[in-house]
Structure formats: C-alpha cells, structure tokens
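Hey team,

Filing this mostly as a record. A colleague (T.K.) asked me to run one chain through the structure pipeline before their review meeting, and I want the input and output archived in the tracker in case anyone asks later how it was produced. No errors, nothing strange. Just documentation.

Input sequence:
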Amino acid sequence: MSSAPWYLNADKPSLKHQRKWKSDPNYTKSWYDRGAKIYQADKYRKGACENCGAMTHNVKSCMERPRKIGAKWTNKYIAPDEKIETFELDYDGKRDRWNGFDPSTYTRVIEKYEAREEARKKYLKEQQLKKLAVKNSKQHREGGAIEDDEDDEDALKVDEAKVDESKQVDFAKVEKRVRTTGGGSTGTVRNLRIREDTAKYLLNLDVNSAYYDPKTRSMREDPLPDADPNEKFYEGDNKYRNSGQALEFKQMNIHAWEAFEKGHDVHMQAAPSQAELLYKNYKIIKEKLISKSKETILEKYGNAATEENISKELLLGQSERQVEYDRTGRIIQGQEEVIPRSKYEEDVYINNHTSVWGSWWKDHQWGYKCCKQTIRNSYCTSAAGIEAAEAAADLMKENMERKEAAQDMPVQAEEKRLASWGTDVSHDLVLDEKRLAEALKKEEKKMKEEKNERKRKYNVKYEDEVTAEDMEAYRLKRVHHDDPMKDFLH
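Output structure:
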C-alpha cells in the first residue's frame, strides 16, 4: 500500500514490507544537461567522427550538418565533444513523465500560434477594406451619397467570435486535441446532442428503470413506459432500431450473410453498392415468384373472396330466429329451422348419369344407382349396362360351376409315345444316322463357340429350320445338372 489506511496512523505506512523505507544514495531525480559541451579540439583526432570531428559519437549517429568534401580540418569544421552522463533513476524517477521537461521550450509553440493569429487578423482586415472600397466606388458611380451605416463599421471590426459564429451550423463545436510532432493541432468533432435537451439517463432516476450503458451511450428500453407518448420525445433505442430504414438495412445484412454462405461473393462492408443491388434484384424476383404461385393457385382452386358470402347458419351453426316447440316436438311458434346446404354443389350429374355417386351400395362398394357401376367418374350405360353386367355375372357363375364339376371327375391318362426330346412323335418316325452324326458335329461346334465368345465371328448366320436329328443331337449334348458324371462328358 502506498499510504496507511484511514483508521491507522496516517503519518507512515503500517507494514514495512509493503514499501521500501531505505533510500539508495545512488538514485537521483536529476536529468541530462542538454547541449553541454566539454572540449573543443583544434585539429582532427584519430577515431573521431569523420563528419564533424567529435569523439563522443560516430558518423552513423552524427546529427551535425554534413562537412564539405575536401575542406581542411580546422577549428571551424570541428564540432566540440558532447557531455555524456549516466544516471541511476529510482522507481518514481523512471516513471516521471515530466522529468527533464524544459518549460521554456513551450514558448516556441505559443509564439507560433500567436504569429498565425496575427496573420489571420491582418488578412481579414484587408479583405474587409477591399469590400468597403468596392462598395464606395460603386456608390460614387451611381451618384449616391455615402451613408455611414453601422453595418460597415461592424464589418471593419475583426471579431473572432463573429467569424466563428458564421461558420457554425446546426450543432455546437467540440475541439479535440490531436497529438502531433509539430506541437499539436485541433480537429472539429460534431456533438449530436443539443445541450439544452435532457440527457437520456436523467429522464428516469429510478435504479430499476431502463438500463443505460455509459460506454456505448445506449438505452435500449423506454425509460418512461407509462408516460404519455405525445409528450415524450425519447422512447428508447429499440424504437429507432425497429423503425424507418433500420429494418431494411438489417434484412440487407442478413441477405448478404446468407448469400456469402451459399458461395456468392457478397460483402456488405467491402462492397455495399453491390450488396444493395443484389438485394433489390432478389426482392423483385421473390415478388414475381410469389405472384406467379398465387395466380396458379387461384386458377386451380378459385378465389373464395370473390364468391358470394356464406350464410351465417353455415358459418356459425346458429341463427337469431326464435322457434317454440311443444312436448311432442311440433312447432308452436316461429319458423322451422332450415337445414343449411353444403358448400359443395349438389344434384350435379356428369357422364350421362341420372344419379349421383354414392346412391348405390353393394358388396362394401359405393356406386351409381342408374347403371350400378362401382367405378367413379365412369360413363353411364343405363339399363343396357345393367343387363350386360348381369349376363356377365351369370356366365362367370356357369363357368365356375363347370370347372368345379370337372375337378371332381378323375382324368384318364393317355399313353403317348414321346421322342427323345420329350415331344409327341408319330409311330412311323425314323432318324437318319448320317444326318444325326452331322447334327452332333454341328452341336459340338456350337458349344465351343458359346464357351469362347471372342472366337465367334461377327457375321454369324443361324438356320431357323430344326430337324428331328438336330433335336436328338441337342438332347445328347445337353448337360444334365443332376447327372453325377456330367464333369466327365466331352
């Protein structure tokens, strides 16, 4: 601790280890002696600066004016040696920002600004005198008398306040100091709040009211939510964030982010004009798509808003009519309640039908009563269709009875003579051995071609005529998968 607490002895620190109490005699708070010289040489010395001749620095760090080439080393060109000092500063001395400051150097800055102000006043006075001379010459040419107006006298006075007042527009000026090497300069910063207005954090001093962030000067919520909206001028920052062009700018930012994520080279801060143009094109295309989809829906389903209004009985299921009934349910007083009709079209017959769909029921299926068809939107065949359907049903019933009767009777198997390939053959069939041998060779050749498709020629012609010898050769050469000796066949 730098000082003792208020409840202890305030003359000295309470704990010794918290502060260094012994001062080092080697520490000092003095500063370097600027511009001090110690020795002026008459001739050049070995190891001195090649530019100025001083022994305390080299040519790289020399700050003197460059020496003339070929000039002799005389007292005129040899610079004196600087005074070099070394200090050991204490903790406070190292951190003292004003240590070594020479107040006399600030007079140069004051003289500089005073000279600039005098020159400005002189220039303004000359301009006012020129304007007055032009005005006098103009009046002299017109033959009028020169009147001594108070405006002319005020114009000759160089008033700094009036000059500055003519330049002020809308808001007051706030001068901000900017550090520069030339002694500092001022920059004008506009203040966006008029000083006569009440600050937003002073509108409601309740601790539990709207939160105010002093760093960003923002108050999102309304500080006076219960006050009359016609009397208060500030309703929170959220009102400005959600009104005007703020919402459009926010949507533009979101569109730029989403477009960038999808691969488009769009950036709101890098290219704002491009992002705004793309957002406008996007809105135009989106409106066209919405209108197009709306038109297609209206063409397909129609517009219920343009049709006649539906009755209240159908919408609400009730009416204001009063009807009185007796114990048996008969109406004594009032009009009998009319059952509201459906919004769908009734008694509309299509495809030549004389009854609606669902007017006939059979075998768990709905149909048309006029033609007894169970297929919806089918064409009506009237009585002829009913007769044809009944005839078809009778014929199907007879066929089923005949089939059941045939299944009950045993079938006698006929003995047939089969050829070697499994087909019926006549009793006088005789195979030619020579043709059979040729058919066997032909079948072997065909099997070799099937094994190796690469050797098969491109233009291959097959004969469609098959003889009995060819069928016998195919049976003999065919591989039987159930034969245990099939692997030994060649």
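Quick notes for T.K.: Residues 23-101 form one domain. Confidence is low (pLDDT under 50) at residues 155-174, 416-422.
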